Amino acid sequence: MSGDVTREAADPERRGATRLGFWAAVVVAGAAATALALGVTTPARSGPFCSGSCITYPYTDAAAFVPRDYFWMYPPALMSLSFVVLLVCVHSRAPAEKRVFSQVGLSFAVISATAIVCDYSIQLAVMQPALSKAKPETASCSRCTTPTESSLPWKTWDTCSLASPSSSPHSQ
Q: Which residue segment(s) compose the domain that 17 sits in?
């Protein structure tokens, strides 16, 4: 054990990876707790779990819930990116004979973070502005932002990519 402490003190790169990994873990835990709190307090607006004032297809009333219903997307995106940083630190500290396992975990974390950040970025950059401007031609795509038991990220991408060119908030 004292050999690990001596090696740790002698190698500033290992010390830096440990410190960065600690703070990445703190951010992951904080973002997870925040995402959980926001997810629990954001009521379902449509689908089988909607219990109050539900909106129905074509979801034109979804604009009334912007931006409140989008706040929950920020912590999971931050958590995904911080988790990648955490796994980079774990990979750098792993013994040589175990690095293949940490590399596999890191690869899956990168894939997951890419999917989540791309999905939420599309929803925040396209859907939220379109709904706040109350463009009826994009309101039907708002179902992409309401997670249900059958919603998957690639369904969101497919559905939103089929929207007309005028659905972009940047197009005039």
A: 11-45+54-147
Q: Residue 3: which residues within 8 A CB-CB, separation 6 or more?
A: none
In total, how many domains does the chain have? 1
Residue 106 lies in a domain: yes
Backbone phi and psi for residue 58, each to the nearest 5 degrees, phi listed first: -90, 25
**Cβ-based neighbours of 35, under 8 Å, separated by 6 or more:** 72, 75, 76, 79
- b/e map of 10-42 (b: 16 or more CB within 10 Å)? eeeebeebeeebeebbebbeebbebbeebeeee
In a domain, residue 111? The reply is yes
Sequential pLDDT tens for the chain (172 residues) = 555 555 555 577 788 889 999 999 999 999 999 999 988 888 777 778 787 778 777 776 777 777 777 888 899 999 999 999 999 999 999 999 999 999 999 999 999 999 999 999 888 888 777 777 765 455 455 445 455 444 444 444 444 443 433 444 444 4
pTM summary value: 0.68
**What dihedral angle (degrees, nearest 10) is formed by the CA atoms of 119, 45, 130, 135?**
140
Closest of 150, 127, 147, 149 to residue 139, by C-alpha? 127
